[in-house]
Amino acid sequence: MKSIKILMAIVLLLSPFLSNAEIKNVSTENVKIAGSCALCKEGIETAAFEKNTSKASWDKDSKMALVTYDSKKTSIDAVLKKVALAGYDNDRFLAPDDAYAKLADCCKYERAVKKQAVAEKKMTEHQHGAMADTQKNAAADTDPLKPVLDAYYAVKDALVSSDGNTASTNATNLVKAIKAVKMDQLASEQHMVWMKVMKDLDFDADHISETKDVGHQRDHFSSLSDNMYKLIKSGKPSEAVYYQHCPMAKEGKGANWLSQVPAIKNPYYGAQMLNCGKTTETIK
């Protein structure tokens, strides 16, 4: 019995270190997050958690949270933005009114009214991808996903030409563009969609880059396009995006793609059926 107690004590002592083991490039910050009860603790820590990327430990008495995150995958702003969107005011962002209203009655805390105007302004600026003091660069910053979309178009154009070598090279550039996206520049809705599709986008782009087989590339391009549509649809692209459909692709099941031009140039068949398909939606 004594040896079991000693073992349990050792596990408890080591648990903080073990919990950090999955997060690499560790950065930690102590931040104040508003809340009032144990249910708030669960909500805050759930919002901050992303496997192998970020987590938080919140104390309801001091209202302080120790935020631990991988500095190469995310930022303290990105983590606290998710916490605010879950309904909890913090040092960096004020929760939107509708998010705060959805909290359980026991979680309703006294809000920092004096800071509300400044915090709401900052939250809005982040949601639209540009801060007030960088308005000179607004044209370039309003669409942080444009490099990803441009790299996607390059892959699409190579498949239209049935050029597996160029598609592979362009997919490598797409992988780089995906990894370079700064999540804290995304508007709130697009940020949430990005978190859901990011890994799948990277998976498909990586598979296209690893082969010169056009058939295999087209298989992954289909699912890549589905997730790109969800992502672009969730925001407002800087230029019109044409969502197009080929009914013959995937053995008659049909497949979609995004295009920068309204004219149909089929990436699933190339010259064999270049003009097969139609535009089903224009996103702008």
Give a description of the structure.
GO terms for molecular function: metal ion binding. It comes from Dyadobacter psychrotolerans. Keywords: Signal. Residues 148-238 form the DUF3347 domain. There is one protein chain. A hairpin with an 8-residue loop joins strand 4 (241-246) and strand 5. With 284 residues, the chain is of the alpha+beta class. The longest helix is centred in the last third of the chain and has 22 residues, at 188-209. It folds into two domains: 26-107, Alpha-Beta Plaits, CATH 3.30.70; 145-283, no CATH class. The strands form two sheets. The protein has a three-stranded antiparallel β-sheet with strand order 1-3-2. A three-stranded antiparallel β-sheet has the order 5-4-6, with helices on one face. It is built from ten helices and six strands, in the order H-E-H-E-E-H-H-H-H-H-H-H-H-E-E-E.
Major sheet: arrangement of strands: 1-3-2
User: Strand count, sense and closure of the main sheet?
Assistant: 3 strands, antiparallel
Helical element count? 10
Low-confidence stretches: 4-20, 114-118, 130-141
Helix proportion of residues, in percent? 40-55%
Secondary-structure element order, as H and E? HEHEEHHHHHHHHEEE
* The number of domains: 2
Number of strands: 6
Mean pLDDT level: 85
Q: How far is the N terminus from the C terminus?
A: 68 Å
Q: What overall geometry do the principal axes of the alpha carbons give? A: elongated
Query: What share of residues are in beta strands?
Result: 5-15%
Radius of gyration based on Cα positions: 23 Å
What structural class results from the helix and strand content? alpha+beta
